[in-house]
Every structure is written in structure tokens, then in C-alpha cells.
Amino acid sequence: MAKVSYDPGQLRHRLELQSLTETPDGCGGLITSWNHIDHVWGQIKPNRQVRQLQGQQVTELSTNIIIIRYREDVASGWRLVYDGRIFEILTLADLNERTEYLECHAREGGR
After folding, report:
1. Domain map of the chain by residue range?
2. Radius of gyration for the alpha carbons in the chain, expressed in angstroms and rounded
3. pTM
4. How confident is the model at residue 97 (pLDDT cuts 50, 70, 90)?
């Protein structure tokens, strides 16, 4: 198996890592809030841009791959925030199977 190498100098974006908390509102609904977990350095790489028609309205969907140093506590459904941009984490992968870097596939826009 070929070793995937990655240049840590590419991690030049300072991102805020946030987790989702849902609390019952007492009326059968949920109150959602985002909690600050940590600041992490990462690289944002555009992956795909899609224009689609939904309900007679054109929407644009942007997906990105964000590389950060490996962390065990990150989960899909969390988000990364950079300069007012919100990236909802969809899936995660250990970039080189050596717990060094984490590849986050994310949708820009989030909740």
C-alpha cells in the first residue's frame, strides 16, 4: 500500500470546530445551538459545484474537502466555520490510515 503524504504547510486556514446540541423546548420541539469545541488549522479545497432546480428555484450546492490534523472527537453533523463561511461535515476519513490527518467532506452553507 502506498503511503499518502501530506504537506502540513498547506494547513493555513484557521477554522472553528463546532458541535451541534439539541435541547427539548418543552413543547415537543428542539432548540438547536452550536458549541465551540476548538480552533483547528486546515486546508479548504473546493470539490464540486452543482446547480439544481428545487421548487421552481435554482439553488447552488458547493462541496469541499477540508483537511485538518487528526482528532478522534470530530463527527459528521458537526461544522467548521471560516471567515463567516459555514461548512457542514458530511463524512470523515483518516487520510493516510495513520491517524495524522482527517479528510472532512463538507457542504458549504450548513444549518
Report:
1. 63-111
2. 16
3. 0.80
4. confident
